[in-house]
Design goal:
alpha/beta; 11 strands
Length: about 240
C-alpha cells in the first residue's frame, strides 16, 4: 500500500533523506523513529505530495504520488501531531464537513456511529472541538479515516503530548484498524515505554548510517491488551541493544 523506492531529498548541499526504500503492506505498521531533523516528517510530506523528492519514486496503492496527486489521497487519511479542526464546529459537524470534501455523505446517525467507533464519548459528539483535549481531537481524525474507509493512515507524532491512558486508547484503535487491513506509516521522536525493539529477521541489517528495520512489540498492560506492531525504522537513533527475535 505504501512504497518508497530510492527516495532522496536534498536541500542544497544537505541530504535529508538518502536513497530510502521500504514497503508497508496491508495490516502493517511502520514507524519512523528519530530526533528532530532526522527526515521523518519529510518522508510523510513526500508521500502526501506536499514536498517533492530530489529523486526516487513514492507510491500509495501502487500509484505514483506525483503523477496521481488527487487519486492517491482517496486512499489515505493524514493525522498530524496537532490535528487542525474547525474549533467552533462540533465533532459531528467537523466530520460531516471533511467527509463531504472526500466525496462522501452521511446522515447524523452514521456520523455519530463513526465517532463512537473511534472511541469518542457520545456526550462529546455535539460539543465544540475547542473544548476537546488532544486525544479527543485525534479520535475525530480516526473517525474520518474509518468513514473514508482509508486503506492508508499517515501519522506524524500521533501520541506526542498524550497521557498514558489516552496513548493506550489510541494504540488500541490502531490495532483494530490494523486488523482490518489498514497500512500505517507513523513517526515518533523517541521510543515509547509501551514498546520494546526487536530485530526483524526479514529486514536488511542497515539501509544507511543509523537506519535499521526492527520489530516492535507492545507491552501487555492493564489498560491496553498485548498486540504486535510489525516494524519500525530507526532514523539516526542509537540502539543500545537489539534483542534477536
Amino acid at each position: 500500500m505504501i512504497t518508497t523506492n530510492n527516495i532522496t531529498k536534498k536541500y542544497g548541499d544537505f541530504t535529508a533523506i538518502d536513497n530510502l526504500s521500504f514497503n508497508v503492506n496491508e495490516g502493517e505498521i511502520l514507524c519512523l523513529l528519530g530526533a528532530n531533523g532526522a527526515g521523518k516528517s519529510t518522508i510523510i510530506n513526500i508521500l502526501l505530495n506536499f514536498t517533492l523528492s530530489t529523486s526516487g519514486i513514492a507510491e500509495i496503492n501502487k500509484l505514483d504520488v506525483i503523477k496521481n496527486p488527487i487519486k492517491t489521497k482517496e486512499f489515505l487519511t493524514y493525522i498530524p501531531e496537532n490535528l487542525m479542526l474547525y474549533p467552533t464546529l462540533s465533532a459531528v459537524e467537523n466530520l460531516d464537513y471533511f467527509t463531504k470534501l472526500s466525496g462522501k455523505k452521511f446522515d447524523q446517525q452514521q456520523l455519530q456511529n463513526y465517532l463512537s467507533e473511534a472511541g469518542l464519548e457520545k456526550a462529546a459528539h455535539n460539543n465544540r472541538v475547542n473544548t476537546f483535549s488532544k486525544g479527543m481531537r485525534q479520535k475525530v481524525g480516526i473517525a474520518l479515516a474509518i468513514a473514508k474507509e482509508s486503506k492508508v493512515l499517515l501519522l506524524d507524532e500521533p501520541t506526542s503530548g498524550l497521557d498514558p491512558k489516552s496513548s493506550n486508547e489510541f494504540i488500541s484503535l490502531l490495532k483494530k484498524m490494523k486488523d482490518d487491513g489498514v497500512a500505517y506509516l507513523s513517526t515518533a521522536q523517541h521510543s515509547s515505554s509501551n514498546f520494546a525493539p526487536r530485530a526483524s529477521p526479514s529486514a536488511p541489517k542497515a539501509l544507511l548510517d543509523g537506519l535499521f528495520f526492527v520489530k516492535l512489540v507492545l507491552y501487555t498492560s492493564f489498560i491496553c491488551p498485548h498486540s504486535e506492531i510489525t516494524s519500525i525504522i530507526l532514523v539516526h537513533f542509537t540502539i543500545l541493544s537489539i534483542v534477536k527475535s
